Every structure is written in structure tokens, then in C-alpha cells.
Automatic annotation (TrEMBL):
It comes from Pseudoduganella armeniaca. This is Glutamate--cysteine ligase. HAMAP family: Glu_cys_ligase. InterPro entries: Gln_synth/guanido_kin_cat_dom, Glu_cys_ligase, Glut_cys_ligase. It catalyses: L-cysteine + L-glutamate + ATP = gamma-L-glutamyl-L-cysteine + ADP + phosphate + H(+). SUPFAM superfamilies: Glutamine synthetase/guanido kinase (SSF55931).
């Protein structure tokens, strides 16, 4: 354990400062496809009983019209966050007719591209902007890729904590600058160690063969409809997932907020010839992408983790970071847990809290380009071969067996877990670490191994296994309908969101071409031309 981590933990454990560790927030975004009772993709619109996908704060869509996204409020304890997520699911099922929510990160059997509907947000300029952005994603990446689901874990520490550390370390930076740099340091440590999350929680070692659309691949055949890799942990996070050539050279440096923002600003404004050939409009004059640049908007940059700031109306993510600094981080690499009805269990959340606290407090040198390539290789090895006997990763120039490094990391994370438990008076975080240690000792205990065992029990069919789990989760939620109070809360949100969308559509609208131009022109931070 580094002297910085020891010193910071001791400071936060001292009586005057203990309370600040209770203050951080946890939020979850869970994506899930709506499917028919037979496990095929649904073709119905976003359920009207859920409200408006454009304006509802907790129930929306991601890419496809059938890819629902459930967003919890931010809570100080992960158990409360998961209760809220459970409540959203129970309400959603009360309005879902006979459809099911798909239990896996990788999609069900997919129809032809033209039969996957892009999410629709109504006729307002804001709604059309979101829709056209998704048309652009379809052109750039194909629609199958836009049907992948994940768990996003939003994490922040109490802002007072950063001020305590800054004072103790004699920092002369402004509170905003210190906090932003501290979150970027957290992100760098996350990049060093996130391979461990993929080994411990990756749950997508197989996929339905329809996903690849006939593209060449190096996967093994498990059955007529299923492809896999025998030691994979997360094919979702491999090069089969959300990748393309335009983004391949885009690696924002997280060594400072300035360089991160500058890289994304460049990408949003840098033309990319293959996209220029397609154009922003089709032959009929309809918008088909927001720009012909490397990325249309910042959110198109696909990353396992992002620095974030809640945006204000009309503001873009880059502007929010520029103006007010980093407020929280969004962990994006977690697979949906197919064995959990809500897609993530409390134990995973407790482990993430200890892991992220460790990443936040541990010393975090800047990452060189060469070092970044090694970290990316460690991650790629783990998602494709994480359970392979004898697998090694590169640490400080040496090849180290994955379980050895994993146990070393757990030992370093343990003091952070113990501090969190001391605030609660229990052992939930240390217990979560112990459960993960067992997975390092025995790869068969990992979720990815459990998925392959279940596939064996289901005729080796990914579709059959996915449908079985989806039916199990549906039965759970339908047996536990929302309380009257919960139902009233979500009914109110649904009605409010529909009214807000109607209000937006009734208001005078600028011409959409002018609206897009104004949006694109607002993307520059003044310091980064």
C-alpha cells in the first residue's frame, strides 16, 4: 500500500472527517431490450404507460426503440439505489403487457437491420436531434451494435472530502481544479485495474450468431445459433463490441481535464472522409447524421469510464466540464448480471464502492501513450481469455499471473473496504472482497463460467438461456407489483413527462437545420479552439 493511500485513509478515518465518506452518491443506469414472449425483438413503440422517453427522468430509451434504459436517482447507499432500481422494474412490468425485459448484455436473436427501429422522441427539435444522432450511429456502427445493453455505475465522493485532502496536502489549486484533477486521477487508476472488474463480473462469454451479421470473426461455435470463446469473460467489452475505425485513434488523455476536453473537442469538429462521403442528409434531403466528423457529439466517444457533470438546459457535456469541472464518474464496463433481476447485485455494488474509493485515494501517476497501450492490452486479454489457465498480464514490465495480481489488488483495496465498514458497523464491503477472492482462486465461480454452464444445460443455445432468465425475472417482478404509493409516483412522472413533451412540441420551433447548426456551434470551450 502506498504512503499516500495510508495517509489519506488515516485522515478520513479520524473523528473530524469520518462523516464525509457517508456523503458520496451512487446511481445506476440499466439498459435492457424489450422482447416478445418467444424471445424475439419487440416491434412495439415505447410503452405509453411508461411516459415520454424524451422527458422522463427515470425511464427512457437508449438507441433502439426497444432498448429501454432505467435510471435511478443518486443515493448515498448502494442498497437504496438498488431498491429504487427494483421499483422502476416493478412499475415497468405493470405496464408491459406480455413482453419481457431481456436478461443479457448481448442481444437476443436480431431481425434484419431495416426491422430494428431507431428510438423516436417526438417531433420537437430536441427530440429530432436525439433521433438523428441515432440515425448517425446506425450508419456508422450498424444497428446490431446499438442493441447491446450494459450497467452504468455513477459514483461521486462528497465534495467536502476533496477539500479536506487539498487542505491536508497544502494544495494551492482552486476547489474545482483540485476536484477535477482528483477524479481524473481516479480514472487513471481505474484504467490500470479495470481488467479485474471484467474478470470478476464479466458475464457475456457467448452471443447469438445473428449479432455478427456475417462479419468475419474468431469465435468458436457452441451450437447452431451460438458463438463463444471458452475463456472469455465479456465479449461485450471486446473488439466485437462498440468499435469502429474512426474512433480507433481517439484516446483522450486523462492526465488533465484540459487535454481530455481538447481531444473530445477536436473529435467533434474533425471531418472524417468516409462520413463526409455519406453526408449529413440523404438523397431525399432527410437528415441521416448530425455531422460528418469523427464523432457527432461527445457521447459517441465510447469509453469504459467517463468524467461527468450534470448538464444544464441547452448545455453540452464538454461545456459543463469546462465551466464547472468534474462532478462524478460514470463506470460503463459492467455487464448486465443475467442472474440478477435488476441486472446488478448488492455485492457487486459494495465491491465497486471499495474499488473506486481505492482508485480515488491511491497515488495515480500520469499515463504515457506506451503505458496506455499496455493497459488496453491487459483489458483485452481479460475480456477474451480471462479464465484461461496460466494467463498473464503485464505489470511494471513483467508478466504476472492474473490471479496473483488480483489477490495483490484485493489486499490493497481491503483497507478502503474496512474503512467503509467501520462507518456502517458491519462487514458488507470486506465480505464482498472475500467473495471476489474466491473467484480468483476458482475461475468456475465467475459469472462468465456460470453462464457457460447454464448454456450447456439449455442445449448450448444463448437464445434459450436468455429467454429462460428473462422469464424468471419477469415472474419475480410480476409477483411483486408496485405498491400503491410507488404506482402513484411513477404514474405522476409518466403524466408529467408526456405533458412536457407535448409542451415542447407545441412551442414555436426554429428550422431544424438552424437548430442543428446552433447545437454544433455550441460545442467549443473558449480555451480550446
Amino acid at each position: 500500500m502506498s504512503s499516500q493511500l495510508t495517509r489519506r485513509l488515516a485522515l478520513l478515518a479520524s473523528e473530524p472527517h469520518r462523516a464525509v465518506l457517508r456523503g458520496g452518491l451512487r446511481g445506476i443506469e440499466r439498459e435492457t431490450l424489450r422482447v416478445q414472449p418467444n424471445g424475439e425483438l419487440a416491434h412495439t413503440p415505447h410503452p405509453i404507460g411508461w411516459g415520454s422517453a424524451l422527458t422522463h427522468p427515470e425511464i427512457t430509451t437508449d438507441y433502439a426503440e426497444t432498448l429501454a434504459e432505467f435510471i435511478t436517482p443518486a443515493e448515498s447507499d448502494i442498497a437504496t439505489t438498488l431498491e429504487k432500481l427494483d421499483g422502476i422494474h416493478r412499475f415497468a412490468y405493470s405496464k408491459l403487457s406480455d413482453e419481457l425485459l431481456w436478461s443479457q448484455s448481448m442481444p437476443c436473436h436480431l431481425p434484419a437491420e431495416e426491422d430494428i427501429e431507431i428510438a423516436w422522441y417526438g417531433k420537437s427539435n430536441l427530440g429530432m436531434l436525439k433521433h438523428v444522432y441515432r440515425r448517425g450511429l446506425a450508419l456508422r456502427y450498424g444497428k446490431a451494435m446499438q442493441c447491446i445493453a450494459g450497467i452504468h455505475y455513477n459514483y461521486s465522493l462528497d465534495e467536502r472530502l476533496w477539500r479536506i485532502l487539498a487542505d491536508a496536502e497544502g494544495s494551492t489549486k482552486s476547489p474545482v481544479a483540485y476536484q477535477s484533477e482528483a477524479y481524473l486521477a481516479t480514472i487513471r487508476n481505474f484504467r490500470r485495474h479495470s481488467w479485474l472488474l471484467m474478470y470478476l463480473f464479466g458475464a457475456s462469454p457467448a452471443l447469438n450468431s445473428s449479432f455478427l451479421r456475417g462479419r468475419p470473426h474468431k469465435l468458436d461455435t457452441l451450437s447452431a445459433d451460438t458463438l463463444y470463446l471458452p475463456y472469455a469473460t465479456s465479449l461485450r467489452m471486446s473488439d466485437l463490441g462498440y468499435q469502429n475505425d474512426a474512433q480507433s485513434g481517439l484516446s483522450p488523455h486523462e492526465n488533465s481535464l484540459d487535454s481530455y476536453v481538447a481531444t473530445l473537442t477536436r473529435a467533434v469538429n474533425q471531418p472524417y472522409e468516409p462520413y463526409q462521403k455519406i453526408g449529413t442528409k440523404n438523397a431525399a434531403g432527410e437528415w441521416q447524421q448530425l455531422s460528418t466528423n469523427v464523432i457527432q457529439i461527445e457521447n459517441e466517444y465510447y469509453s469504459t469510464i467517463r468524467p461527468k457533470r450534470v448538464i444544464r438546459t441547452g448545455e453540452r457535456p464538454i461545456q459543463a466540464l469546462c465551466n464547472r469541472g468534474v462532478q462524478y464518474i460514470e463506470v460503463r464496463c459492467m455487464d448486465v448480471d443475467p442472474f440478477s433481476p435488476v441486472g446488478i447485485g448488492e455485492q457487486a455494488g459494495r465491491f465497486l464502492d471499495a474499488f473506486l474509493l481505492f482508485c480515488a485515494l491511491e497515488d495515480s501517476p500520469t499515463i504515457t501513450e506506451h503505458c496506455g497501450e499496455i493497459l488496453a492490452r491487459n483489458f483485452a486479454r481479460t475480456v477474451k481469455e480471462g479464465r484461461k489457465p496460466g494467463l498473464t498480464l503485464t505489470r511494471d514490465g513483467n508478466e504476472v499471473p492474473l490471479p496473483v495480481w488480483g489477490h495483490d489488488l484485493l489486499a490493497r483495496i481491503r483497507p478502503a473496504a474496512e474503512l467503509l465498514d467501520s462507518l456502517r458497523g458491519d462487514t458488507v464491503h470486506v465480505d464482498a472482497l472475500a467473495q471476489q477472492a474466491a473467484k480468483l482462486d476458482d475461475p468456475d465461480r465467475t459469472p462468465s463460467a456460470a453462464v457457460l454452464r447454464e448454456l450447456d444445460a439449455n442445449g448450448r443455445s444463448f437464445a434459450a438461456f436468455g429467454l429462460q432468465q428473462s422469464e424468471r425475472h419477469a415472474a419475480y417482478f410480476r409477483a411483486h407489483p408496485p405498491t400503491a404509493e410507488e404506482a402513484a409516483y411513477f404514474e405522476r412522472l409518466a403524466q408529467q413527462s408526456l405533458a412536457e413533451q407535448a409542451q415542447l412540441e407545441a412551442a414555436p420551433q426554429a428550422h431544424f437545420d438552424d437548430y442543428v447548426a446552433a447545437y454544433r456551434n455550441s460545442n467549443l470551450c473558449h480555451d480550446h479552439p
